[in-house]
Design goal:
The complex is a heterodimer of chains A (about 90) and B (about 300). Chain A is built from 4 helices and no strands. Chain A is mainly α. The longest helix of chain A has 20 residues. Chain A starts with a helix and ends with a helix. Chain B is α/β, with parallel strands linked by helices and about 300 residues long. Chain B has an 8-stranded mixed sheet, sandwiched between helices. Chain B is globular. The chains are: A mainly alpha (about 90), B alpha/beta (about 300). Chains A and B meet through α2 and α3 of A and β2, α1 and α8 of B.
């Protein structure tokens, strides 16, 4: 059940990455993909992605909290699994 | 709204919270995400309306080829405040963003109620600093050198020269450099390198030592405990009429990244002290305005 949801959320993220950030993802993405290390995105891209996902879902999401949490991590990175879990928790 | 059209450019803007206005200004080669990562955006929004934006040439804001002095950035800031309906704000700037903040404070005391200056050095006060102490520069120089870009200490502050060198790297060196700084960093540098940002950031642009010393609004000079620019911090505390100095424990030049909790707490305490000290008619600022307007 939750796997279906996760895969739908991952599809949403890929679509928003393409449409809002103009990022093609030729290698595809998975839950293990890292936002910064693998996709080559920067933290400013995460801010814009957050904005675009809120528009996509039509509701505010606590992205500022998620960003602040990334700021405290040693690797300062975010797996798509963590992003999907964040969306699942807050949608 | 994340984008605003101002001065013929599209600016990327983020806002949160409600209350007295605070505007956050990042430094050269940075972007507004610094304020999210250090949690300033969330924390300060508990009691203020917080606005952060990407400077021209940075983040998701357009990058025109010219006009990157602190005076140009100040014109953007005031135009953006007009568009967003911000009559008066406390400005919080990091590094060159703090130069912009003080420039704005100097030009219009009615619109800038106070300023937090996080670790800037000022083009007009460059003589104060022993540049060899700037560990940040030394690290950056090492990274660049590993990637095939040799930077002379003589040009420690010369971002323009650095951009120029990066633009002229050839095949192999370019690849190595790109790998060393990462793709987003590389794209950012390439875009800025094609503008006058590097040279313009070194220009006094009207913010002379006299103008700096004439800023009468409350100012917090917030420096890393091991900042390379502590001589500037001392100068500000000594010469500005209402400037207090505070140090971010354990931080060098990048307090918001190196000790975000202490950084945001010190900024928050300063903002709160303003509302306690000057609840309504702000007498000292009014008089400062009349003094400053005659000197413009």
């Amino acid at each position: 059940m939750s796997t279906d949801t996760d895969s739908q959320l991952l599809t949403d993220v890929a679509r928003v990455l393409r449409d809002a950030l103009g990022r093609d993802l030729p290698g595809g993405i998975s839950l293990e993909t890292r936002f910064f290390a693998d996709l080559g995105l920067a933290s400013i891209d995460a801010v814009v992605l957050g904005e675009a996902l809120q528009t996509h879902y039509g509701r505010p999401l606590p992205f500022a909290d998620l960003m602040a949490e990334i700021g405290t991590r040693a690797d300062r990175d975010l797996t798509l699994a963590a992003l999907v879990a964040f969306l699942r928790r807050n949608l | 709204m994340p984008f605003q059209q101002v001065n013929g450019l599209r600016f990327h803007v983020q806002q949160a919270g409600a209350g007295p206005d605070v505007v956050l200004i990042h430094g050269v080669t940075g972007d507004l995400s610094i304020w999210f990562l250090c949690k300033a955006m969330v924390t300060l929004a508990e009691s203020h309306r917080v606005t952060a934006y990407d400077l021209r040439g940075h983040g998701y804001t357009d990058a025109p080829p010219t006009h990157y002095t602190s005076a140009d950035h100040t014109a953007d800031l005031f135009a953006l405040m007009d568009t967003l309906g911000i009559d008066r704000a406390c400005l919080v700037g990091h590094s060159f963003g703090a130069v912009v903040a003080l420039h704005a404070a100097s030009l219009d005391p009615e619109r800038v109620s106070a300023a937090v200056l996080s670790d800037p050095y000022f083009p007009a006060l460059r003589h104060l600093e022993d540049v060899s102490r700037w560990g940040h520069w030394q690290n950056f120089r090492q990274e660049a050198s590993d990637a095939g870009v040799l930077l002379s200490d003589e040009h420690w502050y010369d971002i323009g020269k650095f951009f120029d060198q990066v633009l002229h790297l050839d095949g192999d060196c370019l690849l190595r450099f790109r790998r060393a700084v990462g793709l987003p960093g590389f794209e950012r540098l390439m875009r800025l390198g094609q503008t006058t940002c590097g040279d313009d950031s070194k220009a006094v642009a009207g913010l002379t030592a006299d103008r700096i010393a004439d800023v009468r609004q409350p100012v917090l000079a917030l420096y890393g405990e091991e900042s390379p620019f502590l001589a500037t911090a001392d100068y500000l505390a000594k010469h500005l009429p209402d400037c207090r100095r505070a140090l971010v424990p354990g931080a060098k030049h990048r307090g918001p990244e190196e000790n975000p909790e202490a950084f945001v707490k010190l900024v928050g305490d300063f903002l709160n002290s303003l509302s306690i000290q000057r609840p309504a008619n702000q007498p000292s600022i009014t008089s400062a305005h009349s003094l400053t307007s005659t000197s413009i």
